[in-house]
Amino acid sequence: MYSLCLLLLLILPIHAWGPLGHSAIAAIAQKHLSPATQSHIAALLTQGHDTDLASIANWADEVRAAASGRGPLKDDPEAAAFNAKFPTNALWHFVDLPLGTEDYRKVAAFTPVNDVVHAIKRCVAVLEMAEPRPDDFTKPQALRLLVHFAGDIHQPLHCGTGFYDLSDLGHPVLVTDPRLCIGKPNDRGGNDLFFGPDSTQELHALWDDALVFAIRNSSDYRSLADFLESIPPVGSTTGDYHTWPERWAIDSVQEARKAYRNIKFDAATIDGQHLRITVQLPTAYIDENRSLAATQLAKAGMHLAQLLNNLAWH
Ligand SMILES: [Zn+2]
Question: What global pTM score does this model have?
Answer without folding.
Answer: 0.93
